[in-house]
Design brief:
The complex is a heterodimer of chains A (494) and B (495).
Chain A: H1 4-18, H2 24-44, E1 55-63, E2 68-74, H3 76-95, H4 103-122, H5 126-135, H6 137-147, H7 152-181, H8 188-191, H9 199-216, H10 225-232, H11 235-260, H12 262-288, H13 293-314, H14 317-349, H15 354-358, H16 362-365, H17 367-381, H18 387-402, H19 404-429, H20 437-443, H21 449-467, H22 470-479, H23 486-490
Antiparallel strand pairs in A: 1-2
Helix pairs in contact in A: 1-2, 1-4, 2-3, 2-4, 3-4, 3-11, 3-14, 3-21, 3-22, 4-5, 4-6, 4-11, 5-7, 6-7, 7-9, 7-10, 9-11, 9-12, 10-11, 10-13, 11-13, 11-14, 12-13, 12-19, 13-14, 13-18, 13-19, 14-17, 14-18, 14-21, 14-22, 17-19, 17-21, 18-19, 18-21
Chain B: H1 3-9, H2 11-29, H3 36-60, E1 65-67, E2 72-74, H4 76-96, H5 105-123, H6 128-146, H7 153-184, H8 189-196, H9 203-219, H10 228-235, H11 238-245, H12 247-263, H13 280-300, H14 305-324, H15 329-360, H16 371-374, H17 376-390, H18 396-410, H19 419-445, H20 459-477, H21 480-491
Antiparallel strand pairs in B: 1-2
Helix pairs in contact in B: 2-3, 2-5, 3-4, 3-5, 4-5, 4-11, 4-12, 4-15, 4-20, 5-6, 5-12, 6-7, 7-8, 7-9, 7-10, 9-13, 10-11, 10-14, 11-15, 12-15, 13-14, 13-19, 14-15, 14-18, 14-19, 15-17, 15-18, 15-20, 15-21, 17-19, 17-20, 18-20
The chains are: A mainly alpha (494), B mainly alpha (495).
């Protein structure tokens, strides 16, 4: 069933392309139907026996000349992220229900992106993984450049080039790994077997591939595409960018760089942890002084993705579990925050300047948006009861075991996170109302049903995982028992 | 060696020559007094059917053999390349059917077919003399095709530049060949290699190598022998440019690789970083590196789409040279895959440019603005062509690059000697995404001129473009379709 997530999404693209021009309503419905079907397929993965265990979905010959196979496989990590993709896809469509301009093309690009993302999370053949990874780049460019707002063409091009440079680095690493291994295979499972790559090779191939993927994960100092890209993007695209596309990068770091070159990881882990912590603190500090509401969320994404990378760098089970859970949690929460800022607030007030919003006292005008943002903000700050808390706590515990000093700095980052979230919340929703805004309030359209549904979906996910983290932890945990993570038990420390 | 035997081997070439004559006759007899567009359709259909017949002949009744000590060699591999060449010719004819730049329809199509015959002979010979003769047949036809738009001064200028550079390059080639003959006493590539083997490295050989590389470097438009390409592409009638960029490129690259692999076997040297060893690979390594860098960086600032495609062609020549210098069988497979898919993509891209040019008046980037809303079908085709050129999966351009790079590294798996070139190539292909996206940005993002209604696209071109786009997509998703045949062909050939 899991493989159908990919096929359904691309089938949706085809159907949309064949739809008659100008029928936005039909396009929306087809897109929503496709996304929901994909989500259900993703969900079905959780109802199999022992869902966290590594298992083959599809494995057939593709290009025998080079030993390339069409090989899909799933373990708890992929399953979690596939579920996240499904959630984000459905929510994103609900929040772009108001798109009328070239709607058919918008949803076609959107579903192509989703299909590529599903593909990355399920591929266990390096070549296939890379193919899906690149498929996800181009739709992003068009979605931002055509439907975006502030400096959209600049943001879109910057994002596309950053992603492409990252994937170029990955490509060098992959081809070199393929040739050096001499194994005539791209299978991650085969290549991950100990002793395939010499220490010397791992020492340069690891940073190349890790940073290549890391660019997309918002690794400091290569994160600069993220805030501009997020701000320029239309709401659904920001949600996807922060929600799942950044996870592609982090997933690639874990699935490819760390799995194939564990010795390299061991040697470079300190550097990566330091970059991650700089990302956490720097992102939070920059978010604190932003004037544009969306930039606050954009930089907060950089900060939160720092936790994911830090969790990966700890090289212990609890840190890694935390990292994966943080991917899920941030995907849901960032999606929610961008939805509030981009759809609920910006589409109605046509401004994102915090100073202007302060004079509008939006909490009175749109209580639903305010409540949603407060909930999302609390989740983002890592309050207990939300998924962010469980995830970040595990990352910090893992960090404490691996790099105690950095754990302290991370704590500082969390504190600043509280500060910028509260600041944005206060300014955007609970400012002093100026008298003339009263009339504007009446002119604003009320929050639509689609928006309400989307918000409920994401809040529900954050709450459920926050209260019963076991639901996901039971799936993520067993993934680390597979032979792919032998190095973790042998040399990775606790 | 009987004439019957020779005819059996050269049947496809004979068919094409006959078709060329038939096209001339048909246009003379049936075309008189008709509109140019009808004449293009009538003569074009004759040409297409004839080419299809030649392809069918090659596929259904393949005959392999060799005549007169390597003057004319037909083996599965050359047969395969010839099929691709004729297919590219068909597509070139299809996209030119909508043209109105000339009233000499029959001559135009016949010249395209003569050039094709030249290319077919070019790929199926292992003899220096024959290489030169067929190279000239191809080149002379192409010079005329470039000059064919008599109403445009740029066309004449382009042809003159092309011709002068070409003449110079031919002189170099001939000089190199004469040196080779002097060194070895033979014009057959295999005999040359055998004669040169074991003699050690001769300075005269170095001169011969450089001369030959210059000659072929001109044909494939590699830096620093590329100066003619942008002008020729820009000035030439668009279908001619498409043909120069596709068919001529495939044939030239194939024979380039063949001369290097067969004729200079044993004088490879090494192009590994810091370990240059005298031979032909370091020469090509430098040319390849320059082509990739100059081609990609210069393409960024172009405003004419045809010039942009010309610089992108130079960059792609750089990538393909990587496959030439890997000197092993898999590299040949990767070269042919790359060249053929590149040819298909380029013909398609020029086809779209031709349509836009005839409707909007020029080929400036701004003329493409808003195309996606005026003609969604050809816009989508252009999307596929541009992304394939940029190397985005799952299109053919991506797998081509991947295969070439893997083959280049595999030629020296222990030290990854060519890693520096592969890294450069991948970095440069990241640069290339920028200018391909510039074209797509105009088509999909920018708003078109106010009041610009739908484009009326000629049905034949549109169908041809759709087929090309489908091929690019299909060969990218299932490269095994082509690779399996190539592998079988390669197994039967000694290189």
């Amino acid at each position: 069933m899991l493989a159908w997530t990919i096929y359904i999404s691309f089938a949706g693209v085809l159907v949309l392309m064949l739809l008659p021009k100008g029928n936005a309503e039909a396009a929306r419905k087809v897109a929503l139907l496709t996304a929901v079907a994909g989500f259900l397929c993703a969900l079905s993965g959780f109802f199999e026996i022992n869902p966290g265990k590594l298992r083959t979905v599809t494995d057939v010959d593709w290009i025998p000349t080079l030993g390339i196979r069409y090989h899909l496989e799933a373990d708890g990590v992929s399953l979690t992220l596939v579920l996240l993709t499904g959630l984000a896809a459905v929510a994103g469509i609900l929040f772009s229900w108001n798109i009328e301009h070239r709607a058919k093309e918008f949803f076609a690009f959107y579903l192509a992106l989703i299909g590529g993302v599903y593909g990355v999370f399920l591929s266990f053949d390096l070549f296939l993984l890379f193919v899906f990874y690149e498929i996800a780049i181009i739709p992003k460019y068009f979605i931002i450049a055509i439907w975006g707002s502030t400096r959209r063409e600049y943001g879109a091009m910057k994002l596309a080039l950053y992603s492409f440079v990252g994937s170029a680095m990955v490509l060098v690493g992959l081809i070199a790994a393929y040739v050096v291994s001499g194994a005539h295979t791209f299978s991650i499972i085969e290549l991950a077997k100990a002793g395939t790559f010499s220490h010397g090779f791992q020492m340069w191939a690891f940073p190349l591939v890790f940073v290549g993927f890391g660019i997309l994960a918002g690794l400091w100092p290569f994160h600069t595409w993220a805030p501009t890209g997020h701000v320029a993007a239309p709401t659904a695209a920001s949600m996807l960018l922060a929600g799942v596309v950044m996870k592609l990068g982090a997933y690639g770091c874990l699935r490819v760089a760390m799995t194939l070159f564990p010795e390299g990881m061991l040697a470079w882990k300190m550097w990566i942890a330091v970059l991650a912590v700089i990302g956490i603190v720097y992102g939070a500090l920059v978010a604190l002084v932003q004037k544009d509401f969306k930039f606050v969320i954009g930089y907060s994404s950089v900060s939160h993705m720092g936790f994911v990378i830090l969790g990966l760098a700890t090289l212990n089970t609890i840190g890694l579990q935390g990292a994966v859970l943080q991917m899920f949690s941030h995907g849901v929460i960032a999606g929610l925050l961008f939805a509030v800022v981009g759809r609920m607030v910006y589409d109605r007030t046509h401004t994102r300047e915090l100073a202007t919003l302060e004079g509008m006292s939006l909490a009175k005008a749109m209580p639903f948006a305010a409540v949603t943002f407060v909930i999302a903000g609390c989740a983002s700050m890592g309050l207990p009861g939300f998924s962010g808390f469980v995830a970040e706590l595990q990352v910090i515990i893992g960090t404490w075991r691996a790099f105690p000093t950095l754990a302290v700095l991370t704590g500082v980052g969390v504190l600043i996170g509280v500060a910028y979230t509260l600041r944005a919340m206060q300014k955007a929703f609970f400012g002093e109302a100026k008298p003339e805004t009263e009339t504007e309030h009446h002119l604003m359209e009320s929050i639509s049903v689609a928006e309400r549904l989307g918000a409920m979906l994401l809040i529900g996910a954050a709450l459920v995982i926050g209260i019963f983290p076991k639901l996901l932890m039971d799936v993520i945990g067993p993934s680390f028992d597979s032979p792919l993570f032998d190095w973790l038990r042998k040399g990775g420390g606790q | 060696m009987s004439y019957l035997e020779l005819f059996r081997l050269a049947a496809p070439e004979t068919i094409i020559v006959l078709v060329a004559l038939a096209v001339l006759a048909v246009d003379l007899v049936a075309g008189r007094g008709l509109d140019v567009c009808y004449r293009f359709i009538i003569s074009g259909m004759v040409a297409v059917v004839g080419c299809a017949l030649a392809i069918a002949w090659m596929l259904v009744m393949p005959s392999y053999g060799e005549t007169a000590g390597g003057i004319f060699v037909v083996d599965p591999l050359t047969q395969y390349v010839k099929v691709a060449l004729v297919a590219l010719t068909i597509f070139t004819v299809l996209i030119s059917m909508d043209s109105d730049f000339t009233v000499h329809v029959g001559e135009y199509l016949a010249l395209i077919l003569f050039a094709t015959v030249g290319m077919m002979f070019l790929v199926s010979t292992e003899d220096l003399l024959m290489i030169f003769v067929s190279l000239e047949l191809t080149s002379l036809s192409l010079y005329i095709l470039t000059a064919f738009n008599k109403r445009n001064a740029k066309s004449a200028e382009a042809a003159l530049k092309y011709f002068l550079f070409g003449g110079m390059a031919a002189a170099f080639t001939l000089f190199g060949m004469s040196l080779l003959y002097g060194l070895s006493g033979s014009t057959n590539l295999r005999e040359i290699a055998a004669a040169l083997a074991g003699k050690g490295f001769d300075p005269l050989l170095a001169v011969a190598i450089v001369m030959t590389v210059i000659g072929f470097g001109f044909k494939v438009a590699a830096v620093p022998f590329h100066l003619w390409a942008p002008d020729a592409y820009e000035g030439a009638p668009t279908p001619s440019a498409a043909f120069i960029a596709s068919g001529s490129k495939v044939a030239s690259f194939f024979i380039f690789a063949k001369v290097m692999l067969l004729g200079f076997a044993g004088a490879e040297g090494s192009g590994a970083w810091h370990h240059f060893i005298t031979g032909w690979t370091p020469v090509i390594a430098v040319v390849a590196a320059l082509s990739m860098v100059v081609g990609n960086l210069t393409a960024i600032v172009q405003t004419s789409v045809k010039r942009l495609l010309a610089y992108s062609a130079i960059a792609h020549a750089g990538y393909m040279l990587l496959a030439v210098m890997s000197h092993e069988k898999q590299a040949i497979a990767s070269l042919i895959y790359y060249a053929v898919t590149y040819g298909l993509t380029t013909v398609g891209a020029f086809g779209v440019v031709a349509i836009v040019e005839s409707r909007a008046g020029d080929d400036k980037l701004s003329s493409f603005a808003g195309l996606s809303r005026r003609s969604p079908v050809i816009s989508f085709c252009m999307l596929i062509f541009m992304l394939s050129l940029a190397g985005i999966p799952p299109l053919a351009g991506f797998f081509g690059k991947f295969y070439v790079f893997a083959a280049a590294l595999k030629s020296d798996p222990a030290n990854l000697g060519l890693l520096w070139l592969v890294v450069l190539a991948i970095a440069m292909s990241a640069v290339s995404l920028y200018y391909y996206l510039q074209v797509l940005k105009q088509i999909y993002v920018a708003d078109g001129p106010a009041g610009g209604g739908e484009f009326k696209t000629p049905i034949v071109s549109q169908v041809a473009l759709c087929i090309l786009a489908a091929l690019v997509f299909l060969l990218g998703c299932a490269p095994a379709l082509m690779l399996n045949c190539l592998e079988r062909a390669l197994a039967a050939v000694s290189l």
